[in-house]
Amino acid sequence: MQRIYRECRSNIVSTGDGSKLVHMLSLIARVHETSDLEARLAALEASR
After folding, report:
1. Is the pTM of this model over 0.85?
2. Can you tell me the distance from the alpha carbon of 31 to that of 36, in angstroms, rounded to the nearest whole number?
């Protein structure tokens, strides 16, 4: 996300495209976090 920010500030990437990219990266991070939490919960439940 920092790279996208820097590229927007340098006019390498338009702010509209940068905003969309950051939004997509945020969604990917949230999905990854959720899937990791689900895997940890499943492992915890299996150990009982």
Report:
1. no
2. 8
